[in-house]
Amino acid sequence: METKNKIKPLLSALLILSFIQTAFAAGEYEKGMAYYKSKRYDKAKEMFLKIAENGNALYYLGEIENTFGRYKEAKEYFQKAVKTKSINHSNLKNAYWNIAGVEEKWGEYENFVLTCHEIWYKMHDEAARQKIDALINKMQWSNNSNAVAEYNKGMEKKLSQPNEAIAHFKEAVKTDDSFLAPRFELGIMALHDNDTNTAESYLSAVTAKMPYYAEANLALGDVYFSKKRFSPAIDCYNKSVKFGFLNSSILYHINFKKAQCYYNAGDFEQAEDSASMAAELAPAKTEPLTLLSAAYIKQKNFDKALAVLQKACELQPDNTDALYQLGSIYYSKKDERYLDNFDKLFNLTKDREKPPYPLIIPIIINGHFEKKGYARVNEIFSLLPNAQNSGMTLIKAKSLYHSGQYDKAIIIFRTISLNNDDNLLLASAYARERRNDQAKAIIQPLFGNTEYREKALKDSFLSPLVKEIEREIEQKRQIETDTANKTENKIDNKIEDKIENKTEDKIENETGTKTEDEKDLD
Asked: Can you point out the beta strands (E) in 325-480?
């Protein structure tokens, strides 16, 4: 409560002080005007300097300096005056024209054009535009009558016989090298013919002499943009806005081009600003929205990008750039809506000779394959050129297999290297096509791995083959065992026979020896 009571007297004091200051200023201004009207300029200046924050006082200080030929000081006062709010309309207009007059007289043409530019926008004085047009016409004209005659012939044939017009314009330049009007025409015609080198040569000569020529700067900006020289393009576009009287269509063109320049130069904040301005100037167009969203994406501002892209898709549902960016954001956020957007994009561009968004193709294929959308995967593959990497080829083979197209799957499987799981699928495809020998040839080497044997047994077509192979293996093992046993028996029999034979021989030998002994005894 005490604080409020303290504030009230303070406010009252400030109001009283303000009233006193206003009354003082009014008194000094009236005195100054009286002295000024009676041509007592020293006394008038003294009064006006006491209230130099007043726009009208500053204006008359400028007029006093003008009277004595002190134009520099006069210009400074006028410039201060036009920046104030306390100046009446008549004095404001006169102050501006005084500034423009000094600048034109001193050859400060860039400043002169800027001042006229400001006069037109603030005062809506058509004379300001006429002054600029007159200056540009004067600066690009020639005093050489022969050169002017050639230029006029060129202008007459510009639309109906452009080649002859070009010849006349070139002759005009040849006749008077400083004649800028034909150079400008040659530059514009070259730009329309996409001859950017020629256009740059002529238009840069014009803007070098007249940097305030808005139309020439706009055209040269387009030349630099076409040549991907983004920094000089931005400079030209800025000059065109700075010095020109541009309608909303041209302002849209400039801001959209600047946004592209900034984006390509990696200045995404400036790209955002220019694209936003372009979008405001042309709310029905989607191009600045997609560029704006791209700038947001580069700055990781995905929520703003999504909002802009959704607006673009509302305006133009088949906008491929918007669909691509929407899908990309959803994909990065692991949002399943990416697949719908990429599907729409693929359908819109599938008939083109060269896919404009090749990066989305493996993403779509993987997405549908994971969702077991094999029909869609097969459809996409049918629309693609044959050249695919091994990963995509494997998915193609698997999708055909899961679609029951086993013959086609087998052909694809056989073109790439396969791991054990994929080999089981190939074997299963063979089995389903009753090509059991090929199936058995694939799965038999996997028997050493219990995991794959179990997987094969779970396949209704491979299970009988597994058992058949196992029976064959068992039979083979049995035959080998029997053969081994027979061989062993034969060996045993031979050994026994040999032993028996040796025993018999020994006995016979022993018998024969005894008989001889007996003979000797006899």
From this structure: none
